[in-house]
Amino acid sequence: MSAGQLRLCHRDDIPEGAARGFLPLPDAPRNVIVVNRGGQLHAYMDSCPHYRGGTPMAWRKDAYLDAEGAHIACHAHGALFDIETGACVSGPCLGRKLTRVPLSEAPDGSISVPAQVAGRAARES
């Protein structure tokens, strides 16, 4: 892993069709949501754009998808987001998007994010 990167997990920690939340640093106030869809990993800050400052979206640990697994869901108010783009497709935040987080994958399958993600997480809380 290169300098300036924070390891979140291993690719195998996120099964196909699942989503998990990871803290980029132990004291970070926001998770990074990572979704595995079609073998592609997509990552967003765990911060719904409906409320100023954002709100965490899962109602329990790693419960980031709707019942069908088709969308990322904000369980605080029912908004649904496209997994590939982060765009709100239903709910009170239409026209807004989740904040995308760039991921890096090492040859050993380790998934990491830029170190500044922890700073962004702190500013959004």
From TrEMBL:
Q: Does the keyword Iron-sulfur apply?
A: yes
Q: List the Pfam families hit by this protein, alphabetically.
A: Rieske
Tell me the classification of the organism that encodes this protein. Answer: Bacteria, Pseudomonadati, Pseudomonadota, Alphaproteobacteria, Rhodobacterales
Question: What keywords are assigned to this protein?
Answer: 2Fe-2S, Dioxygenase, Iron, Iron-sulfur, Metal-binding, Oxidoreductase
- Domain Rieske per the UniProt entry, residue ranges: 6-113
Q: Where is this region: Disordered?
A: 105-125
Q: Which InterPro entries has this protein been placed in?
A: Rieske_2Fe-2S, Rieske_2Fe-2S_sf
Checking PROSITE patterns in the record gives: RIESKE (PS51296)
Specify the protein name: (2Fe-2S)-binding protein
Q: Does the keyword Iron apply?
A: yes
Show the CDD domains listed in the entry. Answer: Rieske
A Gene Ontology molecular function term of the record:
dioxygenase activity
